[in-house]
Amino acid sequence: MDFLAAYDAIPESDAARRVALLRQRMKGDGPALFRELRAARPVFATPVGVFVTRMPDVVEVLSTPDVFTVGVYGPTLEEALHGPFMLARDGADVHWHDRGHAQLMLPAEDFGPVRRLTARLADDALDRAVAEAHGQGRTTFDYIQEYAAPVAARVAVEYLGFTGVDERTLHRLSRRVQWAVFVNPDRDPEVHASGVAAGKELHDLVAAVIERRRAAAPGTGADGGPPKDVLDRMLRTVLPPGAEMDDERINHQLVGYLIGYQQNATQCAATALKELAARPDALAEAERLASGPDPASFDAHVWEALRFHPFVPSTPRLCVRGHVLAAGTPRETRLAAGTVVHACMASAMFDETVVEEPYAFRPDRTPVHNMVLGHGAHDCVGRYPARAIVPEMVHRVLLRPGVRPLPGADGAMDYAGTPYPQHYTVATGGAAPS
Ligand code: HEM
């Protein structure tokens, strides 16, 4: 049965059943649900908020932060980080300032060095995973646990500056915070408490790293050479009076970057490979480009693959004053202050009224139609490192002819009861020694 027919058949008074059906369809077949909503009810009011599914309306919500704020998850994020952070606030004080600071700390110039760093760490992880598998008589390994998660965490240690922090600890703690802040719609108290405690652990680990650096080089925490990593850059930067970042604020920035990055990079490296493997022509073309002279064309395959499975399919915003959405269109909707609005980016990227042949795999699309890194006032401020890390993790795999998802198991990703994929079996590409 079509979703809307089934939904409308449930009495309006039975909000719990309506929400349960919505969540079941969202989880079971989000793309089909969004397709139906875009066609029949593009601005869809439910007991858990208004779902906005068409590209212009998603752009409107995400580009109007004085009306649509991050107030839905902001307080939890700040509780977990134990202080202010840009993705928890809107307006001049924290958001504008800290985002400006982050743009300097995560500059476009990092793209090349971060790509080379990722290549080295990825090659090393692949060597280890294949050798360990063969050593144990296996011809497969776990792409997420043995490759994507450790590579992402090692990049966090070497590039962001989590020096000396155990990579498994980084991954585990960042997952707990991500889960509590962004994927806990009913505010389950256990998930919430676990995320807040994990945030405190990360805060204390980073405080110890900063203390060690300050002790090693009093004053700046630096030894006079070029900045070693992002933390080093933050510790050395002298900002004008009134705009300073003390060590506590630097701590929140660094932990916040990790929360915005670790699970995202791990999942994207896996789902991009999965989406390519599900399309043999696209996979063959990506394999050809992987060893060619045109990295931009290769990368476009990865970002197009992620359009079909983005890490953030929708992001909630709190409407803080009355607003007419999609004014002057047939979708015009008056939203009251206090309404939660879900900007469904996974739907917008398939809006057939804007995006040409949305269901075709087309790496030549304009980047404007790709919202994998968000959109508007809070779009990904880590976009330059993200654009290096995610494609390079997939690139290193495709350079190894046999390391591929198992045939027929393109979608077989095991979430192990969490919101994020935990296991994905791939072939090693060689025979285990007998
Ligand atoms: C690896 C893949 C990545 C993906 C898929 C990704 C995705 C996103 C998305 C979708 C948003 C918007 C969230 C929203 O509107 O609610 C976002 C924001 C953000 N990302 Fe990323 N991100 C990635 C990497 C990174 C990296 C490497 C960093 C930093 C080192 C980072 C830091 C941030 C921060 C701080 C924000 C909030 C910006 C603001 O509030 O103005 N992300 N990211």
From TrEMBL:
InterPro entries: Cyt_P450 (IPR001128), Cyt_P450_sf (IPR036396). SUPFAM superfamilies: Cytochrome P450. It comes from the Bacteria. Belongs to the cytochrome P450 family. This is Cytochrome P450. It comes from Streptomyces tamarix.
